Amino acid sequence: MKRFLIAMALVVFMTGAASAEGMLFGIKGGLNMANLTGDDVEFNEMRMAFGGGVWMNYAFTEAFSLQPELMYMLKGCKFEEVDDPFALTYIDLNILGKYTIPMEGNFAPYLFGGPYLGFLMAAEDPDGEDVKDYMKSMDYGLMLGAGFDYKLEAGGCILMDVRYAMGLTTIDDSEDEMDAKNTGIMVMVGYGFAF
Question: pTM of the entire structure?
Answer without folding.
Answer: 0.86
